[in-house]
Design a protein that fits this description.
By secondary structure, the chain is an alpha+beta fold. It has helices at residues 3-17, 24-29, 32-47, 56-72, 80-102, 113-142, 150-167, 174-200, 214-235, 252-263, 268-271, 276-281, 363-366, 466-473, and strands spanning 244-245, 287-295, 301-307, 310-316, 322-331, 337-346, 356-361, 370-384, 387-391, 395-402, 412-420, 427-439, 446-455, 481-490, 497-502. The chain has two domains: 16-235, no CATH class; 252-502, no CATH class. This is DUF4153 domain-containing protein.
Length: 503
């Protein structure tokens, strides 16, 4: 066998030993250009999808931001525009990561900064679309095609329109909503067609080198998010409180007033918690009226009983963790004045300490015959390390909000609120709010309410404080919060009390 025949035989053997080439459609599916474009466009689609259910309004945009990072990573060396798009996507992805983790905490941006963060997020979203549009035009020119890429410009206009509608307070409408969705679908379809045109023109993407595979980057990102969320739920869910040791000694005058109040029937467990300033306001008290009850913040257990042919289901609470006491002290003077105390004490561990809130409906809010005489005050107490500690409320004062109650939904009203957190390592946690009210006319009942909101679980996202949740949704009987309602009601003319408690 001569030389040419041997070379021909060798070529045949080499050809037979090689695997068959995959079909062209498979080659296209795994091409770097198509894969990158599909990931980027899928990310853009998810960034603009809003489904307010099961947390999808947070999950889908976050996944979209990550897909954009993966899609544009191989394209970042194609031209300067795509490089600018890549860095814009990275910066926005980091911002999304921070916001996701922040959502597991009660940490809030300083006043005014939150609006700046929102503007920054929208600005980066617009900027990444702009650079993608310009980058695709440059790629088409490089491939010998008309610059085109009008779909990229249309996508930019579409996003600007949606933002403007949000700024003017557009609440949605079926026809316009369908038009926007249809337009968005058409724009994305045009961008998908653009990627096919690039391949048909023979354009081949030269993927930029990466140090981490997509899978490794996804695992690292997921681990950072999981760790951040866990840390937020465990350590970022309490309000900063100024706890200080309570002075052991008290002025002799304060002790004398305590004795006077005790003689009038003031509950001693509540009396022991009053500050000297509140005791001084009670000097010369003429009468004391009080009421007390215990309330559960657990789900209890269900029992089934049979009454004749009827099956009765009821809930039994073996433990009632929260004790609330209402006390009214009649003050001396020509005008009838009362100092009202709403006191709470945790007599059993509720299992979770996050944030707490108190909504106060004072007598002047409920009866025209009463007016405010002095501002609402109060304090918190607990035992730690064998000592008594005290702290002011994180917030105590009036809040104007849009009510969501059954009788006054959608109306603006102003109530007194307190917001606070109790220490997880403390015992015998307790506190009170108090105010002085004066009678404007005879014959009116003194009616005062306290709504106590307790966080029962860490399981909520985004995390809200008890005050924020109460202002948003009002009454709570399940979920991450539970509301307990207490009323002290009596006639000042005879001192007879009536009581209404509801949990």
């Amino acid at each position: 066998m001569d030389g040419p025949e041997r070379r021909k035989k060798f070529d045949e053997l080499l050809r037979d030993s090689l695997p068959e080439l995959p079909p062209e459609d498979v080659v296209r599916q795994v091409s770097p250009w198509r894969r990158s474009m599909y990931l980027a466009l899928a990310g853009l689609a998810l960034e603009n999808i809003t489904i307010n259910a099961s947390g999808l309004n947070y999950i889908l945009p976050a996944v979209g931001a990550f897909l954009l990072v993966l899609g544009l990573r191989p394209m970042r060396r194609e031209n300067r525009q795509l490089a600018a798009c890549w860095w814009t996507v990275v910066v926005r992805g980091l911002l999304v990561l921070v916001l996701i983790i922040q959502g597991a905490t009660i940490l809030r941006w300083p006043d005014g900064v939150d609006k700046g963060v929102t503007v920054l997020s929208y600005g980066l979203q617009m900027l990444q679309i702009f650079w993608l549009w310009r980058g695709l035009r440059a790629v088409r020119q490089r491939a010998g095609l008309e610059p085109g890429a009008r779909a990229g410009g249309a996508l930019l206009v579409w996003n600007i329109l949606v933002i403007l509608l949000g700024l003017v307070g557009w609440q949605g409408g079926l026809i316009l909503g369908l038009v926007l969705v249809a337009a968005y679908g058409m724009i994305l379809h045009s961008l998908f067609r653009l990627s096919r045109e690039m391949e048909e023109a023979g354009y081949a993407l030269r993927p930029a080198a990466v140090r981490l595979s997509d899978r490794a980057l996804a695992v690292i990102t997921g681990a950072v998010v999981a760790a951040g969320l866990a840390a937020g739920w465990l350590w970022g869910g309490q309000l900063p409180m100024d706890w200080t040791p309570l002075a052991e000694t008290a002025a002799a005058e304060a002790e004398d007033i305590r004795q006077e109040l005790a003689g009038l029937g003031f509950p001693e467990t509540v009396l022991a918690d009053l500050s000297e300033e509140d005791l001084e306001e009670c000097r010369g008290a003429l009468a004391v009226v009080w009421d007390q009850d215990d309330y559960p913040v657990n789900q209890g257990r269900e029992i089934v009983t049979q009454e004749g042919n009827t099956t009765v289901y009821s809930t039994v609470y073996d433990v009632k963790e929260l004790r609330i006491t209402g006390v009214a002290v009649k003050l001396p003077g020509e005008r009838e004045r009362w100092k009202v105390f709403h006191h709470f004490r945790w007599v059993a561990d509720p299992g979770w300490w996050g944030t707490e809130a108190i909504q106060l409906w004072p007598a002047w809010n409920l009866e025209m015959g009463w007016s405010q005489d002095k501002a609402v005050t109060g304090r918190l107490l607990c035992e730690r390390d064998g000592r008594t500690w005290t702290a002011p409320y994180a917030f105590l004062g009036p809040v104007t909000y849009t009510s969501s109650g059954f009788f006054s939904s959608g109306q603006d009203q102003t109530d007194i609120f307190a917001s606070f957190s109790l220490p997880r390592d403390g015992e015998n946690a307790r506190g009170y709010v108090t105010y002085v009210t004066a009678e404007n006319g005879a014959g009116y009942l003194l009616d005062s309410w306290m709504n106590y909101v307790h966080q029962t679980s860490w399981r909520q996202y985004p995390v809200l404080t008890a005050l924020e949740m109460h202002l948003k949704d009002g009454w709570h009987v399940d979920g991450a919060f539970r509301t307990v309602q207490f009323q002290i009601l009596f006639s000042p003319s005879d001192g007879q009390t009536g009581f209404l408690g509801k949990e």
